[in-house]
Amino acid sequence: SVETESGRQLYLSPGKGGCATCHGETGNEPVMPMYPKIGGQMEMYLINQMQDYKLKKRKNGLFVPMEVAMEHYSDEDILQIAKYLASF
Amino acid sequence: SVETESGRQLYLSPGKGGCATCHGETGNEPVMPMYPKIGGQMEMYLINQMQDYKLKKRKNGLFVPMEVAMEHYSDEDILQIAKYLASF
Question: Could you report the predicted ipTM of this complex, rounded to two decimals?
Fold first, then answer.
């Protein structure tokens, strides 16, 4: 939809964080069994986790790829991606 | 089912961690928008997150209730709960 298109582009773009490479197109096709399904999560949960990785506050599990990925996204980008993922 | 019944009991029991109080019966009815949906996640992801909270390695967001809740569960309990939640 128009409301989620911007987030979809940011989420899918391989030149940015490349989210879909690990989480799949809707966020629910993790390529590894230690990755979460993120499609359909609450918008606030998604925003908080992305910000925590960006601000290096979530340090458990495979956090390094997420810290690197989130460097590519602004606060506004994160809101848009959250809106896209929450729409599933 | 027989395979998930033990995990279901551990997950639902109010006398243990009380998981369902915050996450809902299937794990996908969070009572707060900053809580994740955990039903249908991969078994390994679920085990890792529960262990990380138990071992105090996940320190972002609202981790305190999860650290307290996980004190009630053994490693075997965690495996059973993960099997239950992954079944959705």
Answer: 0.95
Question: Would you list the domain boundaries of chain A?
Answer: 2-86
Give the number of beta-carbon pairs within 8 Å between A and B: 65
Interfacial B residues in 42-81 facing A (CB < 8 Å): 42-45, 48-49, 52, 57-61
Q: Tokens 């990755």 correspond to what residue?
A: A35
> pLDDT tens across B31-82, in order?
999 999 999 999 999 999 999 999 999 999 999 999 999 999 999 999 999 9
Residues comprising chain B, all counted: 88
pLDDT per residue over A16-60, tens digit each?
A: 889 999 999 999 999 999 999 999 999 999 999 999 999 999 999
C-alpha distances in Å from residue A42, one per residue of A19, A70, B5, B41 = 17, 19, 28, 15
B2-86 carries CATH number 3.30.930.10: no
Q: Is B29 on the interface with A (CB under 8 A)?
A: no
* Backbone angle region of B24, left / alpha / beta, with phi > 0 → left and psi within -120 to 50 → alpha: left
Tokens read off for A20: 């879909």
The partner residue sitting opposite B33, judged by closest CB among A45, A49, A57, is: A45
